[in-house]
């Protein structure tokens, strides 16, 4: 029987690439979507030999997340959980609206806390399991206008690291992947600044979604059994750079 992976936010972008990567690696994949499951046919066409299913979940709705998580607890255990879904909000820290900041925290952090709790106990009983949170380099560094998003991704990272050390002896790995600039629809509103942002990246380009998915695929593989509590930037050298031009 193929192992089962649950991908939160797998309709398109990084999540869609993760779904296809895991399916190609032999996983049965169920992914969540918020508004429309229109990626399902494309996923199945790309991986015709894999089992891929889709379920609806709005991470912004705490009650819906609770119901979904309770359903996970009542069902069969999962071999892997990958959290990809998230949301951004641009605002100067001094002007940040509390309600909006709370929503960003709910989507990016609180939902993961509840979903991870739902799947981790069966994993610890089985003494096997993989959990990966796809966060952001913004959880590691500061960027003007990103206070809410950075805070939520930093909270996600702190939770991942703590869960990792609490479950390591039970055969569960928990890791954090930190993409930088990725060529997705989320970056479309910033198209006018693309050349400028690409110039800040030592690699000189945005990441492809498949490159993020490849790292997730590795972390779910048997070869990564000793990797837990790790933070893996996939950012073309962005966080390794001081960002100070010479000459």
UniProtKB/TrEMBL annotation:
It comes from the Bacteria. Transmembrane segments: none annotated. SUPFAM superfamilies: NAD(P)-binding Rossmann-fold domains. InterPro entries: NAD(P)-bd_dom_sf, SDR, SDR_fam. Belongs to the short-chain dehydrogenases/reductases (SDR) family. PANTHER family: 3-OXOACYL-(ACYL-CARRIER-PROTEIN) REDUCTASE, 3-OXOACYL-[ACYL-CARRIER-PROTEIN] REDUCTASE FABG. This is Oxidoreductase/SDR, 3-oxoacyl-(Acyl carrier protein) reductase. It comes from Acidisphaera rubrifaciens HS-AP3.
